[in-house]
Amino acid sequence: PQGPEEARAFVNAFLKRSMPRKTDEAIQDIMTRKAVVLEHYSKKKKLQKRRKQKGFTAKERRELRLFEIKPEEQRYTNFLPLHELWKQYIRDLCHGLKPDAQPHMIQGKLLKADLHGAIVTVTKSKCPSYIGITGIILQEFKHVFKIITKEDKLKVVPKFNNVFSLETDGFISYIYGSKFQFRASERSAKKFKLKGSIDL
């Protein structure tokens, strides 16, 4: 067993190691007390700010040509499986497109549906050259549709001043492009109002 002097020396040395910021006089002052409270100095960790991963800007997407379809890939037959998937998607969305389904209910769901893969036809237009264009929608932007025709030609058709027809299992729906100038993501949350008459 240690004697009082040895124990005192041990505690004194221990306090110096444990509290390096304290002076000898402060340590001696602590030694005179009945209770000793050891202080712990922790190094402050620098919090690293997490950088949010930002997507590409519109300019970068254009420079990288992310949404461009290469000419050798512009084949109508390549996108027929996409059309079949779209038809199944619409059947599931409209609960089978039954004959007794209410047309305005189906129309409301088609207005918010994703049209990539749908076959559309330009039925009315203020520009005669657009009338009769039929094909699969490959890309939908705010103001235009990109359509691949059976002749393997990629057509860029503006929505403005054009009326498109959409046929699904015998149900024909008409899209008035002038009132349809939204991105696909915006349409899903858009509330469309019923209007009595719509002009080009």
Describe this structure in words.
This protein is an alpha+beta fold and 200 residues long. The protein has a domain at 71-189: Roll (SH3 type barrels). The chain has 6 helices and 6 strands, in the order H-H-H-H-H-E-E-E-E-E-E-H. Strands 4-3-2-1-5-6 form a 6-stranded antiparallel sheet. Strand 5 (162-168) and strand 6 (171-176) form a beta hairpin. Helix 1 (4-18) packs across helix 2 (24-31). The radius of gyration is 36 Å and the shape is rod-shaped. The N and C termini lie far apart (104 Å).
Keywords, please?
single chain; 200 residues; alpha+beta; SH3 type barrels; six-stranded antiparallel sheet; 6 helices; 6 strands; 19% strand
Briefly summarize what is shown.
The chain has a domain at 71-189: Ribonuclease P/MRP, subunit p29 (SH3 type barrels, Roll), CATH 2.30.30. It is 29% helix and 19% strand. It is built from six helices and six strands, in the order H-H-H-H-H-E-E-E-E-E-E-H.
SSE layout:
Elements: H1 4-18, H2 24-31, H3 58-64, H4 80-93, H5 103-112, E1 119-125, E2 134-140, E3 144-149, E4 154-158, E5 162-168, E6 171-176, H6 184-187
Antiparallel strand pairs: 1-2, 1-5, 2-3, 3-4, 5-6
Task: Give the helix/strand class.
Answer: alpha+beta
How would you sum up the global shape?
A: rod-shaped
CATH class of one domain: Mainly Beta
Mean pLDDT: 82
